[in-house]
């Protein structure tokens, strides 16, 4: 029965290796989030995105006071249009409602807003 002892040691070594690699991955993710990762500088912000499948997507980008609609695909980026002030205000209102939504996504958005020092969008359903 010496074979079962070596199998047990192998299994223990494998499990300990798995735990060590998992712990290292968690530490790396924590460090990246803590440091903030890449952030936009200046008057540039990603307001919304719509994945279309594959490597194609539509983005709404705020540059200063303008809201640009940009398409991304295999051929690179291309400007699709601009949102007027009324459309941009409606878009911002929809994004605020989505951030204050229910369920896990809404909870996560409120928690992130609270962690960054911003007030939750709707204080009545804040956790």
Structural description of this entry:
The protein is of the alpha+beta class. The chain contains 3 helices and 4 strands; from the N terminus they run αββββαα. A 4-stranded antiparallel sheet has the order 1-2-3-4. Strand 3 (66-73) and strand 4 form a beta hairpin. It is elongated, with a radius of gyration of 23 Å. Residues 122-127 have low confidence and may be disordered.
Topology:
Layout: H1 2-35, E1 44-53, E2 56-63, E3 66-73, E4 76-83, H2 85-99, H3 103-115
Antiparallel strand pairs: 1-2, 2-3, 3-4
Shape, per Cα inertia axes: elongated
For the CA atoms, what is the radius of gyration?
Answer: 23 Å
Spans where pLDDT lies below 50 across 5 or more residues: 122-127
The tally of domains stands at 3
What is the N-to-C succession of helices and strands?
A: HEEEEHH
Number of strands: 4
Output the strand order for the largest sheet: 1-2-3-4
Average of pLDDT: 77
Structural class: alpha+beta
Termini gap: 57 Å
Count of discrete alpha- or pi-helical segments spanning 4 or more residues? 3
- Proportion of helical residues: 40-55%
Strand content: 25-35%
Can you summarize the main beta sheet?
4 strands, antiparallel
Describe, in short, the structure shown:
The protein has helices at 2-35, 85-99, 103-115, and strands spanning 44-53, 56-63, 66-73, 76-83. The protein is α+β, with helices and mostly antiparallel strands and 127 residues long. The N and C termini lie far apart (57 Å).
